[in-house]
Amino acid sequence: MYRPLTGSQRTPGRTLTLPTTLKIAALTAALTAGPVLAQSAGHAGHGSSAPPAASASADNAAKPKPPAPMAAMDHGDMQMQGGSAPPDARDPHAYAGGHTLTTGPYLISKERLLRLGDEQSTGFFLADKFEAQRSDGQTTGAYDLMARYGRDYNRLVIKAEGEIAGGKLEESRTEALWSRAIAGYWDGQLGLRHDTGPGPARNWLAFGIEGLAPYWFEVDATAYVGDGGRTALRLSAEYELLLTQKLILQPSVELAAYGKSDPANEIGKGLSSVSAGLRLRYEFTRQFAPYVGVEWAGRFGETADIARADGRPTRDTRVVAGVRFWF
User: Where does the signal sequence lie (predicted)?
Assistant: First the structure.
């Protein structure tokens, strides 16, 4: 029999009727039974083993199917990158000032050809030595210049070296060479050489190599053939030691040998002269660097004999100061 709740069991301000109480009881029973039924279903097969045939069928069903061949796949619906530019993309012609390759002053009248870096002709001038030399109370000048023009594989090279004393050109050596790249760091050279000195001028056919040897030694080796059966050989090498990024110590050595004596130009047969120098330069920029240094020069063999006969020394040490620049 339904009995109404007493005053102490009632919710303040609300009275529970019989239908409401039955609804609450039914809802509570349903919520409590849900997890229990789920647990029972989850552990339903733990108490017994399945027959072998059923287990094999389950294993076969669980194995993944091999992937389909690439040719059988349909890529028709795939979308590649690209498409329209975003609304805020930069206009490619915004910084061209109205100039294009199809209209205006930059119009190309014929088919445009792609030109690579080694197809451009460039020029270069280097004054490796432009200095004053002081020895035995006398001051002389000396220069060692080089200019080239052409491409990476073929160039025209002009070399000039000489000494100035008393405001006059005392002796000089000038070469005009065709330079051809024969390896990654080496050029083969062929051309003409013209000498002036105390005697008659001499002309030579020149051929040699110039390049960068291992350990960064710059090497120049040239052989010469002149009129009257004259031959000559000139070898030079130098190295740049970077004490800092701007302070550079440069040792150098050079030797010359001749196959035939030329007394009129004070040259003897065999090893004729050797010079070695040490120069310290400071590069204010890569293109401009003053330097100071010292150079030793000696004559040997028959060339030394000719110098002694004329009362000239066979050994000489000079203090040098000059500037190295290029453009």
Answer: 1-38
Q: What percent of the chain has pLDDT over 90?
A: 61
| Phi and psi based region of residue 274 (left: phi greater than 0; alpha: psi -120 to 50; beta: remaining) | beta
Task: Say how far apart CA 253 and CA 127 lie, in whole Å.
Answer: 17
Interior/surface letters 11-25, b for 16+ CB within 10 angstroms, e for the rest: eeeeeeeeeeeeeee
Whether the pTM exceeds 0.90: the reply is no
Domains plus CATH for the chain? 121-326 (2.40.160.40)
Measure the CA–CA gap between 63 and 318, rounded to whole angstroms.
Answer: 92
CA-closest candidate to residue 144, choices 225, 230, 226, 220: 220
Give the model confidence (pLDDT) of 143-183 as tens digits: 999 999 999 899 999 999 999 998 899 999 999 999 999 99
How far apart (Å, rounded) are the C-alpha atoms in residues 144 and 249? 18
Determine the Cα–Cα distance for residues 102 and 176; give it in Å rounded to an integer. 43
